[in-house]
Design a protein that fits this description.
This protein has 295 residues and is an alpha+beta fold. Helix content is 40%, strand content 23%. Strand 1 and strand 2 form a beta hairpin. Helix 5 crosses helix 6. The protein is elongated. The chain starts with a helix and ends in a 5-residue tail after the last strand.
């Protein structure tokens, strides 16, 4: 990676939360110590932990309080105050929602509880001004997309951002011509890899449509089959339009050089999904790679 600015910032945030776990922590406190936007931080923690940033902080506070419940004679009201809960009833309610039992029941019983662990940065890595998370596996039903089919030469694309130009033109000039789109704001970039060439791919800038939908002249409909997919999520601290082949180069190197070999997969097709209108200074993109069978 070119630098580890984001990883270092996240490491500092995680350490800061743990160091100040007994204080009342607000979103503004965290953002001011990270120099990253609150929205960007929220999305990173949501992707990594399944929790919003403040939910993560609360869960870490509750996890830390378990030691006091097990190993001290402190009253519940004192433990609540120690971990920054304004009212002890707020602590009891949060504890019960988190673990399904009250603090007193935990202290007096033998019920194990599942805790939210400290955010593990090993689950993501930095790519330029963004982060990529280890893939999740999903089962996706078949669906249809409509768009323009283009030939993209691999070398030319890296030098001149050909695919990105096609994507921008389609999204901002052509997609509005497609009527009755399923989700007109979500861009889908479908790549199909020909069997007899390593110099180019077919690239279809598109949006999802219903089966049988009419499309404007010059456009085609492609069926993306139902399959099991590995989904890599990229979260960028920049404008969505700044995503390019250079941004994604490190991701592709990992996918093509490691993931496909380790999982015994062929590169036949893939697609990316992004909503460029989601935010101006932030972007999320999902890259879908199908599980295939080598013959």
């Amino acid at each position: 990676m070119k630098n580890a600015y984001l990883i270092n910032r996240l490491s500092e945030i995680i350490n800061w939360i743990e160091t100040n776990i007994q204080l009342e922590i607000t979103l503004d406190d965290i953002a001011s110590n990270s120099h990253l936007s609150k929205y960007y931080l929220h999305r990173i923690f949501k992707q990594a932990t399944g929790l919003s940033l403040l939910e993560y902080v609360r869960s870490r506070k509750l996890a830390a309080s378990l030691s006091d419940l097990m190993n001290t004679d402190l009253r519940v009201v004192d433990i609540a105050q120690e971990y920054g809960f304004e009212y002890h009833q707020s602590y009891i309610r949060a504890f019960t929602r988190e673990y399904g039992i009250t603090p007193t029941q935990f202290r007096n019983g033998t019920t194990p509880v599942k805790v939210v662990e400290r955010f593990n940065l090993a689950n993501c890595y930095q790519v330029d001004d963004g982060l990529v998370f280890k893939p999740i596996h999903v089962m996706l039903p078949a669906f249809f997309v409509a768009g323009n089919r283009r030939i993209v030469y691999i070398g030319d694309n890296f030098q001149n951002q050909t695919a990105n130009d096609y994507a921008q033109t389609f999204y901002y000039k052509d997609r509005h011509r497609i009527k009755n789109a399923v989700d007109p704001d979500t861009y889908i970039g479908l790549t199909r890899v020909p069997k007899d060439s390593t110099e180019f791919t077919y690239y279809i800038p598109s949006i999802q449509v219903k089966e049988g939908s009419p499309v404007p002249e010059g456009m085609i409909v492609e069926r993306i089959p139902s399959n099991k997919y590995a989904v890599f999520k990229y979260i960028g601290n920049h404008y969505p339009n700044e995503i390019s082949s250079k941004t994604l180069k490190t991701i592709w190197e990992y996918i093509y050089g490691h993931w496909m070999k380790e999982n015994n997969q062929l590169n036949t097709y893939s697609f990316e999904r992004i909503n460029p209108l989601q935010a101006e200074d932030y972007c999320e993109m999902e890259l879908f790679f199908p599980f295939t069978t080598l013959n």
